[in-house]
């Protein structure tokens, strides 16, 4: 299962056309190649797919989604959480 969890943009590297995003406390880089130049700003919430930012999401919707994800995680036991993370990390749709 591939999840698209809202991520907050924490920095932008215009030289390399990438952004660093925070996804529930985990930071990673994501390409900006699929977005119009200058359309993504620090503080925006975005959705990722295969390592690229695909679109921006309204902050209110992003925060509500994150609340629901946290609620789901609280209901899972340790093994279920571990398995969910492994499945997402190994998602064939994620790419390199």
Describe this structure in words.
The chain has 96 residues and is an alpha+beta fold. It contains 2 helices and 5 strands, in the order βββββαα. Strands 3-2-1-4-5 form a 5-stranded antiparallel beta sheet. The longest helix has 17 residues, at 59-75.
Summary of the model, kept short:
This protein has 96 residues and is of the alpha+beta class. Helices cover 30% and strands 31% of the residues.
Nearest-integer average pLDDT: 87
Overall, the morphology is: globular
Strand content: 25-35%
Helical amount among residues, as a percent range?
A: 25-40%
Strand order of the largest sheet: 3-2-1-4-5
How far the N terminus sits from the C terminus, by CA atoms, comes to: 16 Å
Low-confidence stretches: none
Number of strands: 5
| Oligomer kind | single chain
Q: Give the topology string: H per helix, E per strand.
A: EEEEEHH
Separate helix tally: 2
- Class computed from helices, strands and strand pairing: alpha+beta
Rg (C-alpha, Å) = 14 Å
Largest sheet: 5 strands, antiparallel
């Amino acid at each position: 299962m591939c999840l698209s969890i809202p991520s907050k943009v924490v920095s932008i590297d215009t030289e390399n056309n990438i952004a660093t995003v925070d996804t529930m406390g985990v930071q990673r880089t994501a390409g900006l190649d699929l977005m119009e130049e200058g359309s993504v700003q620090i503080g925006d919430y975005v959705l990722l797919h295969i390592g690229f930012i695909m679109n921006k999401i309204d902050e209110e919707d992003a925060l509500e989604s994150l609340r629901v994800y946290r609620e789901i995680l609280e209901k899972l036991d340790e093994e279920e959480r571990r398995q969910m993370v492994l499945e997402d990390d190994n998602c064939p749709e994620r790419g390199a």
